[in-house]
Every structure is written in C-alpha cells, then in structure tokens.
Amino acid sequence: MKYHITNNLDYVIRVKISFSKLILDFEKSKKKSQIVTITSGRYIKLSDKASHKTAPIKVRLIRVELPKGQVEILMTSLLDIKNYPNKMFKSLYYKRWRVETFYDELKNKLKVEHFSGYSRQSILQDFYAALFISNIQTLIVSELEDEIAEKNKQRKLDYKINTNLSYGFLKNRVIELFFTENQIEQPLNELKQLFMENMVPIRPYRSFKRDMGKYRSRTKPKITKNQKDSI
C-alpha cells in the first residue's frame, strides 16, 4: 500500500479477515464501508522499504457479499464514497478474475514452471516461449469470436474454446505454422477448425468452493534437463 501511495497509484486489495483485529471488527460490524487508519504490524519487515512502523495509512474497507453467503473484505485508497460508491467494488474486483485464470493457464496448462534447463538463458527461453504460445492462441481465438457468437445464437448454452485442448493443438503445429514452406493459411485454418470442433459449454451460475489448502503442500517441479514437453 505504501508503494502505491508513494507512486500516486490507487489500489483495491482483498485482505483476509484474519489480517488484523481491525479487519475482524469491521467484518463483525456488518458495515458496508468504513474509513480506518492502519499502521504496519509488529513483525512486518520494513528494512528494505521506504516506510516506518509508525507511519499510518488511511484506507477504506469495503464489504462484498458473494452469492453463497461468503464475505470478501476489500481495502482501497479510493476514499471518496460519492465518486466511488460501495456498489461498484464488486464488479471492479471481479475484473481481476481473468488475470488469475491466466496465471492458472501459465502454470497448469503451459507448465511455465517446468524448465528444460538450469541456466538463466534456458529459463528465459522457456518462459517467453510459453508467453508466445499463449499470445498466438489468443489471436486465433479472437478471430473466431464472431463465428462463435453466431453459433451460440442457435444453442441453448453458450460455448467457448477449450483452452487446454487449444494449447495442445497449437503446440503440436507451431513449427509447421511458422517454418513451413507452404502458405500459412493451411495450418492456421486447420487450427481454427480444431478449436471450433472442441468447444465446451459455459454453465451459468456454476461456482467452485475455494480450497485454501489445495496448493499448500505443493512443491516446485523437479525436472531433469531435456525432459520438458517441447513448445
């Protein structure tokens, strides 16, 4: 928060109810919004930060009610209630969801943490190759948006591209796509057809309970050289 303030940046941050007694009291109060002053905790390391333990920060707490009764507490620098009413924060915070799902794609679909070597160059090559594949997949999907929207008009449920399968189709054809002597249209059209043939339905109001301990025991991938799936 101090970093954002120093750089004249506003922020919206989700905090755990156990973050501090101040947050706990706010959650119990059932208030929708409250402006409070917080200070750095006793055990927060500040030696590498341009701050001081006693430097107070004024923040606004927002209570967000989720569909199944859960409560999220947001902390923001947007203190003006008239310009930034409470009702806007639920949709504003939801916008971060696509960022979080992209992290999931990078880590679990593109296996960005599974490096093929141990040198800095190997790691950077693997990382940027994963981003490159993701960008190409996004470009192909964007070209199919109008066709998908037209087909969805004829269906009971809306459908979307199966991200996991689309990455697999692309990884198996990326060399042909960019290094073939033939026209690029042939492998590109083949990819588009595969994307369209393997779509999945979007089920409205579907949600999954957050498993807070799901990755707690997760260890970093241990992989020997040259054992990574090629991209």
From TrEMBL:
The UniProt entry, under InterPro entries, shows: RNaseH-like_sf, Transposase_11
Q: Which domain of life is it from?
A: Bacteria
Domain Transposase IS4-like residues, every copy: 2-136
Q: What is this protein called?
A: Transposase
